[in-house]
Specification:
7-stranded mixed sheet, binds oxidized coenzyme A, alpha+beta, 4-stranded antiparallel sheet, 8 helices, 425 residues
């Protein structure tokens, strides 16, 4: 049976009255679930609005340049008229509808094949049409806008054009000026006919996996990051945590994560360069302490943020992490819940592991990874003592934080966790 679905601007966090800078569909087009319909652009980010239903576009109720807010009607889509669209809708889990639109748009343009002419500016001396946020993005990636092919209206360069250009540079050996063998002349991604080797199934990545994958890949490639390890003796802290949880039967359960966030804030106050972002030749030192924490969800990794963690007690932080982790698992987080972090804690302690190398969440400059605590023999000068030992893995951006500073931070953090009274000093 045919059904007409109205697709509106979803929750877009703190943004309102944002212009539509691109429209990808027209009446009669067939769209699949999650296809980008329009792009909105605030002064901070571009956002794609995805199709929440598959089918045929019946009406497009906006035009380029219109300014919209949450709830603004964009498109009417009729489902059940296209076999292709129907089958797509059938295989895509309805849960996807509940996933909030990410703060950063998914690049939509295909990777531009680089040709020899790409070395010649596309607009030599000419005017480049790009918004301030696209210019900032290009600056951050080192992209020369005069070489980027615009795909927006009136020759406007969109964020995805910059991404596509950078991707093209990365995959094209012909444009690198580095000598062969320097490590930058990358081979193309291997294409394998898996059927030749056995049975397999194809499972599309979730929307969150696709978005976080792009962010992780950029951060991995662009940040010269080093991971530093330290062991913290948390024997007393764990005994304290267990005792408090026994005494407290009504409030939120205290997990180690809440103590880690509180101790991290104290360490950030002591070492302000860890609570910073690089901006060209300057360092932005933040006076606020918003701490992101990685949450494992069925749809992929999400990083909700505890705001002003310096002004919150351990119980409040524990209650908030529990609530935000629940919302993350149920796909209920809003974009605003995941924005503005100044430092991130990624705790795998409930699962296990010894050490790992977390990837920095740009534009932050450091991230703390934590694995499972274990009793280890520690020499006290006379004998080995069984001590509960927590493995810490701090990844830091070497452009901002060198090894000596990172190790000082780790040692300090371990001291705080060993004797939590120090947090109050
Ligand atoms: N060592 C030993 N035990 C630990 C521990 C640690 N470091 N951290 C947590 N635990 C224990 C908890 O005490 C709890 O035990 P009890 O049920 O007996 O009290 C159990 O492990 C489960 O804890 P939890 O993981 O549910 O709770 P949390 O507050 O520690 O973590 C959250 C919450 C959201 C961080 C976690 O559920 C999660 O999603 N972790 C994965 C994060 C991730 O994927 N990181 C990798 C990102 S890629 O860089």
């Amino acid at each position: 049976m045919n059904q007409l679905t109205e697709i509106k601007v979803p929750d877009i966090g703190d943004f309102s009255d944002v212009p539509i800078i691109d429209i990808y569909i027209k009446p009669g087009d067939t769209v699949a679930l999650d296809d980008a319909l329009v792009t909105l652009e605030s002064d901070k980010a571009t956002m794609d609005v995805p199709a929440t239903a598959a089918g045929v576009v019946r009406e497009v109720l906006v035009k380029l340049g219109d300014r919209v807010c949450e709830g603004h009607l964009l498109v009417r889509v009729e489902s059940g008229v296209s076999a292709a669209a129907e089958s797509q809708a059938a295989v895509t889990p309805a849960k996807q509808d509940a996933i909030p639109v990410p703060a950063l748009a998914v690049p939509l343009s295909p990777v531009l094949p680089l040709t020899e002419e790409k070395d010649t500016p596309l607009s030599p001396g000419g005017k480049i049409h790009a918004s301030p946020s696209v210019r900032a993005y290009a600056r951050e990636l080192g992209a020369d806008l005069s070489r980027v092919t615009p795909s927006g209206p009136n020759g406007r360069i969109l964020k995805e054009d910059v991404t596509a250009w950078i991707k093209g540079v990365l995959i094209s050996p012909s444009v690198t000026t580095a000598p062969s063998g320097s490590g930058l002349d990358l081979l193309p991604w291997p294409k394998v006919d898996f059927a030749k080797f056995g049975e397999f199934e194809v499972r599309p990545l979730s929307r969150i996996q696709k978005i976080s994958g792009q962010n992780l890949a950029r951060n991995w490639v662009m940040i010269p990051a080093v991971t530093y390890h330290e062991d913290a003796d948390i024997t007393e802290l764990e005994a304290f945590r267990v005792q408090i949880n026994k005494e407290n039967t009504v409030g939120a359960k205290l997990t180690l994560l809440a103590f880690l966030i509180k101790a991290s804030v104290r360490a950030l106050q002591e070492f302000p360069t860890f609570n910073a972002s690089l901006d060209g030749d300057s360092l932005i030192l933040k006076k606020y302490f918003h701490i992101g924490f990685a949450a494992d969800t069925p749809n992929g990794l999400m990083v909700p943020v505890i705001r002003n963690a310096d002004r919150k007690g351990i119980f409040e932080i524990a209650q908030e992490t529990g609530e935000l982790a629940r919302q993350a698992r149920e796909g209920l987080l809003k974009p605003g819940d995941m924005q503005g972090a100044s430092f991130t804690v990624s705790s795998l302690g409930g699962i296990g592991g010894t050490y790992f190398s977390p990837i920095i969440n740009a534009p932050e400059v450091a991230i703390l990874g934590v694995n499972k605590s274990a009793i280890k023999p520690v020499w006290d000068g006379k004998a080995f003592q069984p001590r509960l030992t927590l493995p810490l893995s701090l990844t830091a951006d070497h452009r901002v934080i060198d090894g000596a500073l990172a190790t000082r931070f780790n040692v300090y953090l371990a001291q705080l966790l060993t004797d939590f009274r120090r947090v109050a000093l």
